[in-house]
Structure formats: C-alpha cells, structure tokens
Design a protein that fits this description.
Elements lengths: L15 H8 L32 E2 L1 H11 L1 H20 L6 E7 L14 E9 L2 H69 L5 H34 L10 E2 L12 H6 L5 H23 L5 E9 L4 E9 L9 H66 L5 H36 L8
Parallel strand pairs: 1-4
Antiparallel strand pairs: 2-3, 3-5, 5-6
Length: 445
C-alpha cells in the first residue's frame, strides 16, 4: 500500500484530534469489513437520526464500487489479456521452412546454361514439441501469478475503502456526542442565566457557560467538515469527485464477533501474500522445467525432391541436423532458477512467521478493546451519569460551583468518546485479523 494512501485530514486543535491520533497509529485492513449491525449502548437519545436511504451509502456498496471502478484494479484486466497473448504465443511451434536450391547451372563447359542443373525443393522443421509444452506451462503459471497479485491489490483497495468508511462513520457518531454536549451546554446556560438574574450566581459564570457552549458548537462544525472530507475520500476510491451520498450506514458501538485465536491461526494459509509466494513458486518451477528442456539440442529434419535436368530424373533428398555441444548447455540457467526457488521458499517462511506474530499481537489488542469497552459501558459511564445528576443537584443547592458541574460534564463526554474509540479500535483490529488470515466477510453493515 502506498504511503500516500495513509494520509488523513489535518489534525485540528479540538475534539477531533482524539480521533486522528488513534487512526494515525492503526492500520485498517481486510478485503471488506464485518462490522455488525449493532444496537447503541447509549440510551435512546444517543441513536443516530435516520436519513433518507437514497443518500446513505452501505459498506457493501462501497466495496463493490471499489472493485468495479478502482483505477489500479482496472489495469489488471490489461495485464491478464497480455498474459493470455503470451500463452497463445507459447503454444505456437516454429513454422516449417521451404527451400529451393539450384546447383550445377550457369557455369562453364558441361555446366553451362541449365542443361546439367539440379533443382531441389525441400521442407525442414525443428522438433520442439517438449519445448513448446514447457513454454506453455510457464505462460499459464504467469497468469496465476497475476491473479494472485490482483487479489493482493483488491485487498489493499478494499481496506482503504474500509478505512475511509470507518472515518466517516466515526465522524457521524461523534456528531451525536457533540450535539448532546451542545444540548447540555444550552441547558446549563439557561439555568445559570436564571441564577444570575436572582443573584445566586456571579455574572462571570454565565460568561464561562456561554464560552463553553460556543466551543462545543465549534467542535460540531469541525466534525461536519471532517465528515464531508471523509465522504469525498471514500468516493474517490471509485474515481468519483462528488459523492452521491451524504452519510454512511452502521453503528460502531457493539464490538464485532471474532473466532478464537487458535482458529485464526489455522486460516493464515489463506493470506493473499502467502498465496502469491505459492504462485511464484509454480512459476519458478515452470521456468526450471523449461531450462532443463532447453539444455537438450533441438533436432532439425529436412526432406524434399531433387530434379536432374540432364537425365530428366527425380530423386528424394532427406537430412537431419543435430547441434554439437553436449546435452548440458543450460546449467547456468538451471542453477539460477534453483537458487530463486530456494529464495522464494525462505521468504515465504519468513512471511508466515511475521503473519503469525502479527495475528497474536492484533488479537491481544482486540481483547483489550473489548475489555475497555465493557469497563466504560458498564462501570465508568453509568457512574459518571449518576455523578452528573448529583453534581447538578448540588450546584442548584449552592454546594458546588459551575466549574465542578462543568468538570463532571466533560468527564462524561470524554468517557463516551473513549467508548466510541474503543469500539472503533475493535473493528479496526477485526479488519486487520481478516486481512492477515484472508477470511471473507459475512456480515457487513
């Protein structure tokens, strides 16, 4: 994957930085995504408002459009057609050669004119049946290698699409949190104004509350811009510069289902990059077979008819041509291909070790995301909601200041954002596991 594919929108000095910092350390990969259609862990007020279905993009459609229209994938069609031409060419044998020879003519004495001439019409051909079969095998194996490379590229482009899809979905759900924080700040301003009016609260607290409300509105504006940018990045995956949609479907707040680590290890052999090494091994083996066949000299046969002008007779001519030089003319090429076969096997073994290690690490990160989500949803957020209620009541009684009330509000909002990030992290890690194991997606949004 190119480095340019990993560029995101610029970091901004507000709440969206929390999201950007996370994505800059995570690689979203997989042929597609198996994010479950989830029920929100928040109360009914936390759900995303439904939009016109005609303006909402699903993950399935996004991936399908990428497969159909991504420019990098289109080039593989031309490569495969070119390789098909090589297969056709490899199956062609050398054409027979027709030769007309005139001897003993236009000389002197008895060989003057054409009276003593000998005219020979002959056909010659090379016996290369074994060589043609090996060339054909090599060309066919080349087609399989291109298919393997296309599978890897499909993985890259689909996961980049998934990356942008997750970005857009995350911004949508952060807007929910931002709107809730604005509603809370508006309620706070109204209450403080009433308290200032009756002389229970200093005027400075009103200004602080109004400033906080303005900052939270700025966060929402920023998220709207971030969402628009991510939708354009998503549409660019299939060559569009103007998205025909204004939102994506799905909810992140329920962690995805994942099979056991032991079962994941068994599926590592499906990794497309490992499959490419297998295809490359087949190509190298076909090259070795061709090199061994080429070490044998090719025999050339000739046959024809000769006419003797002096006697007005005909005769059959035949011949065979066998190159000298022994039967081991290609030992250098054979040694080279054998070395490349060994190199290919070593690289495949090294890649398998890296993949197994990565699967273990990512699985640990996934389990940590699950644990963090459970702690936030079941332990931290419910207690902060109760604390906010108690702090509000204490503020109304004059026991707490506005800053105490604001601090609890921000703690709750931060916890809700952390829950969204933990769920996002779980989905990212699930996608990474799917890329590493080459598994298919069964339950997209």
């Amino acid at each position: 994957m190119n480095q340019t594919d990993n560029q995101f929108t610029a970091e901004k000095p507000i709440h969206s930085r929390f999201y950007n910092r996370f994505l800059n350390t995570a690689l979203i990969v997989g042929v597609s995504m198996s994010l479950s259609v989830a029920t929100s862990l928040y109360a009914e007020e936390n759900k995303i408002s439904q939009v016109n279905q005609g303006s909402t993009l699903t993950l399935f459609d996004a991936i399908q459009r990428t497969f159909d229209q991504h420019p990098d994938l289109q080039s593989f069609q031309h490569r495969i057609k070119a390789q098909q031409g090589r297969v056709i060419q490899a199956n062609l044998s050398p054409k027979p050669e027709v030769e007309l020879t005139l001897e003993d003519a236009l000389g002197s004495g008895n060989f003057g004119g054409l009276d003593s001439a000998q005219t020979t019409l002959s056909v010659s051909w090379v016996l290369d049946q074994g060589l043609k079969e090996k060339r054909s095998e090599l060309a066919s194996r080349g087609t399989g290698l291109i298919e393997s490379e296309r599978a890897i590229k499909q993985l890259d482009t689909a996961t980049q699409t998934a990356r942008y899809y997750l970005m857009a979905l995350s911004f949508q759900e952060r807007q929910v949190i931002a709107k809730r924080s604005i509603a809370l700040a508006e309620t706070t301003v109204i209450e403080i104004k009433q308290r200032v009016k009756v002389g229970k609260t200093p005027l400075a607290e009103r200004y602080r509350a109004e400033a906080e409300l303005a900052k939270r509105r700025l966060v929402l504006v920023d998220l709207e811009h971030e969402l628009e940018a991510s939708l354009h990045q998503l549409a660019a995956q299939w060559g569009s510069t103007s998205p025909g949609f204004n939102s994506v479907s799905g909810v992140l707040l329920t962690p995805p289902k994942v099979i056991s680590f032991k079962a994941l290890k068994k599926q590592i052999s499906h990794n497309p990059e490992l499959a490419r090494y297998l295809s490359l091994e087949r190509v190298k083996q076909a090259e070795l077979n061709l090199a061994k066949q080429q070490r044998e000299p090719l025999w050339k046969f000739t046959t024809g008819v000769r006419r003797y002008e002096r006697t007005d007779d005909f005769g059959i001519v035949a011949g065979i041509s066998i190159p000298f030089g022994g039967s081991n003319r290609n030992q250098g090429r054979i040694a080279e291909v054998n070395a490349k076969l060994s190199q290919n096997q070593s690289e495949a073994d090294a890649l398998r070790i890296r993949i197994e290690t990565s699967v273990f690490i990512v699985y640990q990160q996934l389990e940590h995301s699950f644990h963090l989500s459970d702690m936030l949803a079941l332990e931290i957020i419910p207690r902060l909601e109760k604390a906010l209620k108690e702090t509000h009541q204490a503020y109304e009684l004059g026991k707490y200041s506005y800053l105490d009330w604001l601090a609890v509000q921000n703690e709750l909002l931060d916890a809700q954002s952390a829950l969204l990030e933990a769920s996002l992290s779980a989905h990212i890690n699930k996608i990474e596991l799917e890329r590493l194991t080459g598994t298919q997606i069964t339950s997209p949004f």
